[in-house]
């Protein structure tokens, strides 16, 4: 009090709760729905990382050494890109706290630089060898990804009603965002333009939609009987890589 730094909100239980990390991170997450929809922000960051480390802390007391300790505490079995996303999202939270005057000074954050390697192009022969190494029941979705050129989230979300193999056209009406396994439909009123199918895929797609209901998934995981999750695609691909290495 002598140095004029007395803050009554630290001594009033109702006021101090406003500054708790869990209160502020929840409010911040609610304001970031657009990033969640794009798959750039996952609730798992909060449940698996932020809350176990920062819960019950006053955001005004979180310093650079806490952030560094958090970074060192993160699991080492995650990719550098994943860890960067976790740290970048946390820094965004603290930028928001600064903007809204919940804190007067932002702690420093570690700088994570990704090694952006030039893409390796796979020739057609190698591509076919890779597809042959994929289990036969899982091969259709990987064949589609190899020859159609759309993202895994869009391929996983395809329904029978989106395809017209006879006309050779398809619609991309939805996608799965990141690892959330939540189907995101195209915004109502937005025009979804037909896309031409790669002719090489038409026999495969005809077989995939045969005798299926229009609302059924085009590509069904034979282990679960429903759409492929992101983790299932990654597990299958990792096993193929290990097989070919």
Short structural summary:
The chain has eleven helices and five strands.
Low-confidence stretches: none
The end-to-end span amounts to 66 Å
- Give the neighbour order of strands across the main sheet: 1-2-5
Our estimate of the beta-strand percent is: under 5%
What is the CATH class designation of the largest domain? Mainly Alpha
Pattern of helices and strands: HHHHHHHHHEEEEEHH
CATH topology of the largest domain: hpI Integrase, Chain A
Helix content: 40-55%
Radius of gyration over C-alpha positions, nearest whole angstrom: 24 Å
Structural class: mainly alpha
Secondary structure elements and pairings:
Blueprint: H1 13-18, H2 21-30, H3 33-38, H4 43-54, H5 64-73, H6 80-99, H7 124-133, H8 139-148, H9 152-157, E1 163-164, E2 169-170, E3 174-176, E4 183-185, E5 195-196, H10 202-209, H11 230-244
Antiparallel strand pairs: 1-2, 2-5, 3-4
Structure report:
The chain has helices spanning 13-18, 21-30, 33-38, 43-54, 64-73, 80-99, 124-133, 139-148, 152-157, 202-209, 230-244, and strands spanning 163-164, 169-170, 174-176, 183-185, 195-196. The protein is mainly α. The protein folds into two domains: 8-99; 124-244, Intergrase catalytic core (hpI Integrase, Chain A, Orthogonal Bundle). Strands 1-2-5 form a three-stranded antiparallel beta sheet, with no helix packed on it. Strands 3-4 form a two-stranded antiparallel sheet. A hairpin with a 6-residue loop joins strand 3 (174-176) and strand 4. Helix 2 runs antiparallel to helix 4 (43-54). The radius of gyration is 24 Å and the shape is elongated. The mean pLDDT is 85.
